[in-house]
Design goal:
The protein is of the alpha/beta class and 678 residues long. It has 4 domains: 3-161, Rossmann fold (3-Layer(aba) Sandwich), CATH 3.40.50.1970; 211-219 and 231-420, Dehydroquinate synthase-like, alpha domain (Up-down Bundle), CATH 1.20.1090; 427-465 and 603-673, Rossmann fold (3-Layer(aba) Sandwich), CATH 3.40.50; 505-598, Rossmann fold (3-Layer(aba) Sandwich), CATH 3.40.50.1000. Helix content is 46%, strand content 14%. The protein is built from 27 helices and 23 strands. A 6-stranded parallel beta sheet has the order 1-8-5-4-2-3, with helices on both faces. The protein has a 6-stranded parallel beta sheet with strand order 13-12-9-21-22-23. A 5-stranded parallel beta sheet has the order 15-14-16-17-20, sandwiched between helices. Helix 3 (75-84) packs across helix 4 (99-111) and helix 6 packs antiparallel against helix 7 (196-212). The radius of gyration is 28 Å and the shape is globular. The chain binds magnesium ion and zinc ion. Zinc ion binds at residues 124-125, 172, 252, 272, 276.
């Protein structure tokens, strides 16, 4: 199937076992001096083998190995490879996907050396692409580079790649749906060429992907192969068109914008294809909203003033502001747009729904909610309003811009995600202090909220990190507040730790904690002692004294296994805060240099424990709480949802710049009721 593209890429091999053919191919093509480029993971899964086999074939190999697990395609990475290159090298051989591929083609074209790629994951469509996705001067750019002279994708290796990488490949490919829609739009409105043969390549590639999407999670080799073929084909389409147009539109504009903003805020962005997948859902939401205009012609809305626009571009693009302001996009007249209204609606009506594509992503565990990738509402809205200015390409975003609809559509997309955030939730995990009560006062709406959950068929449990008291205390406390509950409805950090310890076969424990914590451990069969214990536990020790702290530090320094019940730094009380378990642990760390393994929220131990105890799946759970770094953080990067209530310690302004993004923010449980419908 690849022969017809041999003028673009002379050799493409996608099959099981093709890694064994790399050395023969290199020797047959006369390469004698190869620079092999990898990172720690790709070296392990493929690089080591490839280098050995090349050497065995009598080829000189030098290595350029990145030390970071996920190198960033920036000036530093370029410098690293350029420094490793010498003019006697006749081939740069990238071993990896994503960044490794981009850097190799980018540097290859600049030093005048051909490059080839041994893929390690079906994670992106850049293998055959003529452009490298780079981050230069802090801005996402796609400079034209060169096609590799060979692509090797060994299905055995790609099939073993982490599912998240395959999910990214799926996301990048599903992005072709909105990319093709944008291309059609540009064809209609600005007369951009749309050669049938290139469109057919992308459509074929997309069809392969959609057919396999629901079977990708099973790692069926046939599906991995067809996804990989789809990714390579869409790169070929871009190379044939000499532009990324066939494979990149609104969704890539949004995804690149998110990446840029997250890097500017020193936060780690999700993989390219993961962002593109979510951005495709966002794009489809906008198309669906646009379809609502079918009956009457568009009315042009007022555009923001240039001064406003400029100050926002400055805020979002920093030092690259001049380049952005010079990207003059054509502004189409309302008459011209309305003359093509039917054709625009035909595109909108031909597209799948956002729900359909979200279901495909969900099937492989790919994020479908902004909070899941740490994307806050502000950046989501900014991306819709300002991402188009980075590039001179006519897309749906340009159309909405020409119509003056961007702000309105940004709000519609935001609303869509908020309204669908709790779909499928069957059990709410309620934090206690700051959420259902404050100290000793139950909130007036708590009982009504619990009734509402029951009436709408939702389950709930209470969960607290606070290890200064035990379960009996909390059950009694809730009962006094008029909230009767059985012990299985009250889980706490101490239980998570005790559950974990069952696998450790310890008997003797030293505990820095309250009497309540000690009695929980004794009830579980442990002997509390400061004479030769097997392990040490630090809880929210409200009775701690200097002697106990010293003994704990001695044990920790001596290398005893050491567990922190929960990470909270402060505990809210009526008139402020008191230092909590995390603060005590910080004192021990200062003395010993050792940090405990923490349990409680937000540790993965707690999430797994709740799943085990309740029997609900991860994506059926919703954490509700008042604290970002515990209640919200536990859901970050998982399929569990999170709701921040502002009735406790977090203020709305704390959300700005927070690494932990809730799915929904509400004043209190009363407001949350609106989002929980039968
Ligand atoms: Mg709380
Ligand atoms: Zn892409």
């Amino acid at each position: 199937m690849w022969n017809k593209y041999s003028t673009i890429i002379p050799h493409i091999a996608v099959d099981s076992g093709v890694i064994g053919t790399v050395a023969n191919w290199a020797a047959a093509n006369g390469y004698i001096n190869i620079l092999a480029v990898s990172d720690p993971n790709t070296h392990r899964v493929a690089g080591e083998y490839v280098v050995k086999s090349l050497k065995a074939a009598g080829i000189t190999v030098r290595e350029c190995r990145y030390t970071a697990d996920e190198p960033v395609p920036d000036e530093q990475a370029v410098g690293h490879l350029t420094a490793a290159y010498t003019p006697d090298i006749d081939l740069i051989l990238g071993i990896g996907s994503g960044t490794i591929n981009d850097i190799c083609t980018f540097v290859g074209v600049r030093v005048g050396c051909p490059s080839a790629i041994v893929g390690t994951a079906p994670s992106m469509d850049g293998y055959a692409s003529l452009g490298s996705a780079m981050l230069l001067g802090g801005i996402k750019v796609t400079p034209a580079t060169q096609c590799p002279v060979a692509i090797f994708c060994d299905i055995d290796i790609l099939g073993d790649a982490p599912m998240l990488l395959a999910a990214a490949g799926l996301g990048d490919m599903l992005g072709k749906i909105t990319a093709l829609a944008d291309w059609r739009l540009a064809h209609i409105l600005v007369g951009e060429s749309m050669p049938d043969d290139i469109v057919a390549i992308v459509e074929d590639a997309l069809a392969k992907i959609k057919a396999g999407a629901f079977h990708l999670a099973e790692r069926d080799p046939a599906v991995i192969k067809s996804i990989t073929e789809g990714l390579i084909l869409s790169g070929i389409a871009m190379s044939l068109y000499k532009d990324s147009r066939p494979a990149s539109g609104t969704e890539h504009h949004l995804a690149h914008f998110w990446e840029m903003r997250m890097l500017a805020e020193d936060r780690k962005p999700a993989l390219h294809g993961i962002k593109v997948g979510l951005a495709t859902v966002a794009g489809l939401i906008m198309w669906k909203e646009l379809a609502g205009y079918a009956r009457e012609p568009f009315q042009k809305e007022k555009q923001p003033s240039y001064a406003d626009y400029k100050s926002n571009i400055l805020r979002l693009y920093g030092s690259s502001v001049e380049a952005i302001l010079q990207t003059k996009n054509p502004v189409l007249s309302i008459d011209h747009i309305n003359a093509n209204l039917q054709a625009i609606m035909d595109i909108a009506n031909s597209l799948p729904s956002p729900e359909e594509i979200a279901a495909m992503l969900n099937a492989v565990g790919a994020p479908v909610r902004p909070a899941e990738i740490g994307l806050n509402e502000e950046t989501l809205c900014d991306s819709i309003i300002y991402a188009r200015d980075r590039k001179k390409t006519y897309t749906l975003l340009q159309l909405l811009g020409d119509l003056g609809y961007l702000e309105d559509f940004a709000e519609r997309v935001r609303q869509y995600f908020v309204n669908t955030a709790l779909t499928g939730v069957r059990c709410f995990v309620l934090d206690m202090d700051g959420t259902v009560y404050l100290s000793d006062r139950v909130f007036p709406y708590t009982k009504r909220f619990l009734k509402h959950l029951k009436a709408t068929g939702r389950d709930h449990i209470f969960y607290t990190n606070n290890s200064s008291q035990n379960a009996v205390h909390y059950i009694n406390k809730l009962q006094r507040m008029g909230i009767p509950l059985t012990p299985d409805k009250l889980l706490m950090s101490t239980h998570v730790l005790l559950d974990h310890l069952q696998t450790c076969h310890y008997k003797r424990v030293f505990i820095a904690g309250t009497d309540a914590l000690r009695s929980d451990f004794e009830a579980a069969g442990y002997i509390h002692t400061d004479n030769d214990p097997d392990f040490a536990v630090l809880g929210f020790d409200t009775d701690i004294d200097y002697r106990r702290l010293t003994v704990l530090c001695d044990f920790v320094r001596a290398g005893l296994p050491y567990y922190g019940v929960h990470i909270d730094y402060n505990c809210p009380v009526e008139n402020g805060f008191i230092p909590d378990c995390g603060s005590l642990a910080a004192a021990v760390t200062a003395s010993t240099g050792i940090t405990p393994e923490f349990f409680g929220k937000p540790s993965g131990h707690t999430l797994r424990y709740i799943i085990k105890k309740t029997g609900y799946r991860e994506d059926e759970l919703c954490f509700v709480g008042d604290r970002l770094y515990t209640d919200i953080a536990i859901a970050a990067g998982t399929q569990a949802r999170s709701v921040l209530v502002l009735s406790g310690e977090t203020k709305r302004s704390d959300l700005c710049g927070s690494a932990f993004i809730p799915d929904i923010v509400v004043e209190d449980l009363t407001e949350l009721m609106m989002y929980v419908q039968p």
